[in-house]
Structure formats: structure tokens, C-alpha cells
Amino acid sequence: MLIALSVRDFVLIDALDLSVHRGFTSITGETGAGKSILLEALRFVTGGKSDKRFIRVGADKTVVSASFQLPEDHPVLVEMDERGLSVEDGVVTLRRILSVTGPSRMFANDQIISADFAKLLGESLLEIHGQHDSSALMNAALHREVLDAFAQAGPLLARTRETYGVWNEARTALNDLLAEASTREAEIAQAEQTVEELDTLAPQEGEAARLGMERALLLNSQKLSECLSEADDAVRGTDAANVFGSVARSLDRACRLPELAEADEASPQMAALKGAQDAVERVLIELNEAAFAVESARSAFEHDPEALEHCESRLFALRAAGRKFGVTPDELSNLLIETRARLQSLNAFETRTEDARKAVTEAEMGYIEASGKLSALRKSSAEQLSSLVMKELAPLKLERAKFRVRVDDKPIEQGGPDGRDAIEFEVQTNPGAPYGALNKIASGGELARFTLALRVCLADIQSTGLLIFDEADQGVGGAVAAAVGERLSRLAEDRQVIAITHSPQVAAAGHTHWHISKKVSDADETSSKVTVLRGETRLEEIARMLSGSEITNEARAAAERLMAEPV
Questions:
Q1: What is the b/e burial string over 33-69, where b = at least 16 CB atoms within 10 angstroms of the residue's CB?
Q2: What would the mean pLDDT of 200-225 be, rounded to a whole number?
Q3: Model pTM?
């Protein structure tokens, strides 16, 4: 709710600071005193038009600020948080400065924002109903949202949106399949040729890498064979085996000498002799193993021109296929698997298409069922809302008018996530006249009263915190004005209501009463000021509104009765 309004040098207002309370605040004053200036200031600070004429004559700038106390779940706080704008204790203060020499600047809690964002916030903070204002109730594009809120259609709306999403996805999948039809035959032929060629080639995973290593070895096998042959010849041609064989025989003869037959084997001499024998024996074994190893290596790298030719032929074939199909040689085996799967899918096109058509039909039926239930709820709720509004019209001197919520079925192909209904609030102001859009058929005063009737019927579902009515009592008086006041007071039970009025019945219904007056200084400067009326001063103002410039005792008595009457 609005808790404070501060205005500096705005049109006729030089300085104004108001604390705003809950409930219904009525604003009165003589014609031309500047009552509508307050509304213009609120429009200005919530992102409305910016006009240099707003700056008070003689001032260099105008400054307007409005503070709102909001519950923690209010959408404005969500918007502020998403943009990283700080808020303390749920208070949001909008401030706008317009100077003579520059453009206007907008702030939210002293953080600069755009006028568009201020306007977005303003749409959630307040709603002004006047001859020159277009509220949500006047916007046909929002009538569906209003009716759905009245009908408590949330669950059905969510189900309709869900089924529409499924239906839309199914249609997209079918369209993608049908788009394949024109290229399907050519793609099948290409896939079959690819599979045939790769089947013939029969590439194995990692084969090209293995063949590359094998080819490198085969290319060098002749040189390797020559080197190993030389090594083999050298091992076999050495006298080392004869030398160490002779040494072994000599050591063996030494061990068999009669002089050593009785020798202690643990003696140092015998241990040394035994060690020499073991060492020579190991050398002979290593020499034989070395000769065998060199011979094996020579045999392994024996040059084989046919093996090289076969390896190169296979490797070059794999590389050529890789270039043709745009993959590496080692990716050919995966390409074959993928192409087979794609070919199978292409050959199953008719089955897939039939399945896709069935999916579309099933999804469409689901959407038709969900949107049909939603439409039925909307139509029954439309009749209920129309009936409620009609009951409000007679007391507001609109007894000859009719109101209806029109719900028209749209063709299934025009359906959307929110259903397949065209919804609009329409009125008929005179018997026999055609129904038409509310803001095109009703006059200024009628429009305000139609809006008031709608607001009363939608009091439980509309979330805008502050409602402002500009002369909703225009052209009416007596019992009708009292009915207007009673409905404004009723609306104020759940939200703030401010109304500019010329009617004493409406003014008396307010919980708070502001009076706007105009004065002219000795320097011929005109200014407006706002006074909060209480007690006798309020009684005098309502009596003035009843009797005119001369306040009579009868007028005062009538004012007392109005103020005493329950609303």
C-alpha cells in the first residue's frame, strides 16, 4: 500500500508531504483547485509521461516520490530482487526528478532505474480509473487472465498448457519426419552404398594405427635383418666359447688332482677354485643364450617384401576410405555401425511416420479434453461474473445497461497454451444498441462506474494494492452517489482506495478525507495545498458540498447524517 507521497514544485504544488493510510481516502475541493494534480503526480512517479510543463513556474526542477509498504510475496519485490535492487523491510520508494535543462531520472530506493521499469512496477502497485486511463479491465488482452483468476482456473490452465506442449512437440516431430520424405530415397541409396563399401572393406577398430606401426617395421626390416645377421655372425665366429671351454676343462682337471682329494672344501683355496668354476660356467651359459637370442631376433626381422606389400595395400585402402567418408581411418568401423542404424531407421520410415501421426492424434485429443474442460469452466464463470456485475449496475444508475463476458470458441488450429477461447468484456449501454468494448461504448462517467462494479465483483482476486478513481460519481447524485460511496468503502476493506469526488455522499463514505484548495499570493502566484480534514472541518466541507458557497444549518445537519450513516 501507499504510505507516503512527497511532491515538490509539480504544476501548482510547491511542497507537499502526505502520510497515506489504509482504507478509503476521499479527495474533495472546488473545481480548478488541483485535485487531479495528485493523480498526475502519481502517474508521473510510476513511469507515466514526462512533460516540462509539470515543473512549477519559476522552479528549476520537480521531484515526486512515493513510498509503498509491500508484503514479502509481492511481485514488485520479486522484480526488484531479480534486478539486484535492494529493499529493506518491504518498503519501495519510487522517486522521479525532472529538471528544466535535462531529461527525467527515475530511482527505486535511491537506485537508478528506467522509466519503463518504473512503469512495470507501477502497474503492480496502483491502478488509476479515470477518463484518460487504461486499466487492466479495459485491456481486452488481459480479460482472459481476469476471468481465469475469478474462475480459479489455475489447475485446469496448467493442465491445458501441459497438453498443448505435448501436442506441439508431437506435431514438430511429425513435421520433421515429413520433411525427410523428399530426401529419403537419396539418403537411403547413399547409406546403402556406404554400408556396402564398408562391409567389403571390413574395417576393424584400431586397425589403421596397428598397420601403421607394422608398416614402419617392415619398411626397415632389411636393414634390421642385415644388422642382426652381422651380430649373429659375430657371436658365432668368436673364440670366446673355445677359450672359456678350455678354461673350464683346466679348472676341472685341477679339481681332480690327487693332492686335493682330501682337501677341506670349506677352505679358502677350495672356495676360490669352486668360484672360478661357477663363473666360467655362467659365462658359457650366457654365451649360448646370447647366440640363441641373436638368431631369434634375426629370424623375426627377416625381410618379407610380400608382407610389406600386403600391409601397405590394406593401410592405403583404409586411408582412402577415410578421406572419402570424411573420417579418420580408425573411425570407419564406428561409421559402419552408425550408417547401418541410420539405414534401418530410414527403411522403417513408414512405421515411424505412422507412430508419429498416432502420437499427434493422441496428444491433440489430450489437449482438446483439457482445453474443453477449461472452456466449460470459463463459460460458467463468465455467466456468474456477468450476473454479479449486472446486480451492481442498477444501484449505480446503469440500470438500462447490460454487461457480459463473451467467451467464443476458436478453431482447434488457433488454440494455444492458454486454451482456445476468445474472451472479452462487453457492454450494452442502451436497449437495442450493439454490445461493444467497454472503453469504446461507455462515456467517462459510465466507464468509471462500470469499472467500479467490476472491481467490487473481482475484489477477492485482483491483487493491485491501490485503486484510484477519478470522479466515479460524475453525473450522478443522491442514492446513486451513496451507492458509489458504499462500494468504494467496501473495496477498501481489502486494499487502499483513493477517490476524487464532487459528491458529499462519496466524500462522507471515506475513512480519510483530503481537501485540496488553491490560493493566489500577492505576487499573483497560484499554489495548491492539501489539508487532512477531521471533525468539524470535515463536517463543514461536506456541508459546503451539499449547499454550495453558503453553508446552512440544514446542510450541516444533512452532513452529520451522511457522516453517521454506516457504509
A1: bbbbbbbbbbbbbbbbeeeeebbbeeeebbbbbbbbb
A2: 78
A3: 0.64
